[in-house]
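cron nightly-structures :: item 1 of 1
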Amino acid sequence: MNDDKPESAWRSRGFLPHFDQPSLVQSLTYRLHDAVPDSVVQSWKAELAWVASLQREEPREVKLRKLIARYEDSGHGACWLRDARIAALVEDALLFFDGQRYRLIAWCVMPNHVHALIETEEAWPLAGIVHSWKSYTAHSANQTLGRSGDFWYREYHDRFIRDEQHLVKALAYIEENPVKAGLVAVKEEWRWGSGWWRRAEEGRE
C-alpha cells in the first residue's frame, strides 16, 4: 500500500470468475487483535483435542472455525471497525488495488473482523496482499484513534474456492454476515460490504 489515500471505486463490479482460468479464488477472514483472545482459542483447541497434524476440513477444524466465527459475530473486543472512519479506511484499502493486484469479488467489514473474496494474480501472492491491507490500515487507524499497539490479529484464515457452487456459498456467507449477526435486516443495508455496493451500482444503471 502506498501513501496515497485509497480511492473508493469497485472496478470489477463483483462479476464472478470462470474456473477455467489459472488464477486462484480465495475466501479469507482477518480480525482485530482482541476479537477472539488467544486464551479463548487455546481453550477451544483443548476441548476439541487439537493435534498438530489436524488437516483442513477435518470435523474438529471445521467446528473450531465455526466457534471462532460465532464468537466474532458476538461483537467482542474494542470493535474499532464500528467507527465509520475506520470502516471506510478498511473498505478503501480493499478497493484500492482491485483490478490491479487482485479482483475483489465480495467483502464485508464487520465491527471486529473483515471478510473478503478475491481472485488473485500470479504475481501477487495472497500473503503479500493481506499484509499490505493490514499494515496500511493498522498505521492509519491507530493515528485516527489516537492509540498505539497491535490493531490486527497476526494470523488470517483463508480457503481456496473449489468450484462454482462453493463460490456462490462463500459469496452469500460474506454478504449475509451482517444479517446473521443481527446488525441489519437485509444485506443491502450494511454500508460496509459488497451487498450495499451491488444495490448502489444497480441504482446507477
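cron nightly-structures :: done
DSSP finds six helices and four strands in the chain.
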